[in-house]
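Suppose you are handed a protein chain with no further information: no name, no annotation, nothing but its sequence. What can you learn? This example shows the usual starting point.
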Amino acid sequence: MKTGYKLARPDGWDFYTGNTINYRGDGQYPHTVKVPNANPKLGICSAGVGHASENPNDCFVGAKIPCSAYKIKFQPVCGDKTKWGWVRATVIEEITDLDTLFGWKYTETVNPINPLSLPEVVVPTTGDLELLAVWDSVWASVRDSVWDSVRDSVWDSVWDSVRDSVWDSVRDSVWDSVWDSVRDSVGGSVWDSVGGSVWDSVWDSVGGSVWDSVGGYIGSLFPNIKDWKYTEKLNITGYPFQSCVDLWRRGLVPSYDGKIWRLHSGVKAHVVWQGKLERVM
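A reasonable first move is to predict its three-dimensional structure. Written in structure tokens, the prediction is:
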């Protein structure tokens, strides 16, 4: 017999169909669940068996956020050392502290901070500008690697679910609002007069800087990871992208148009500061 973990939809039903197996049942534990039309010969990752993993973070293959989690006991009928197939299992308990179970900030991932929904920062502080100067230096050094660093440092099975949960929550507000604000800041008539490579260059830079802020924030949801790939040359102790995270949690989103940095705040992503910076690293 093996003891492993299983993820289900928030209501307790399986992710595969949403109405085949209810792991929560009536809320009484332990209880037994069975795979209808079981066929172990179909092997792992098939409809013929249920699935469980030794590591809860390996359960995200076929699952996503939000989810519920269960500890189950079963006799494996197929699989390998870390992921098993079963046809009958005993659900021992539902695990409700998912932050501890996964070892990262699941609760915040489900309800990520949208910096533009925080109280508007009317006048950034000296400390805010110091953070922006650090982020400018970090971004200049590893701008092509922020997402690579976060993605490749986080468990492969978890990455897609966390990224989608955060991005789906903040995409329209942060991305679109900042872009509209940059355009308004530049000036509509000037903006409309530029095109081609100029337009594309500004778009790539603004979009890239905002995109990388999102990536930096996502990485902060994994405090137990100490070795962040591709950041060795930064020579920073701790999380290498913390400067942009601190701005994010303050309600400030940085954007860069290729020449000027801006800080955006409030539901309309107002430009509350703009200018050039001296790099500090």
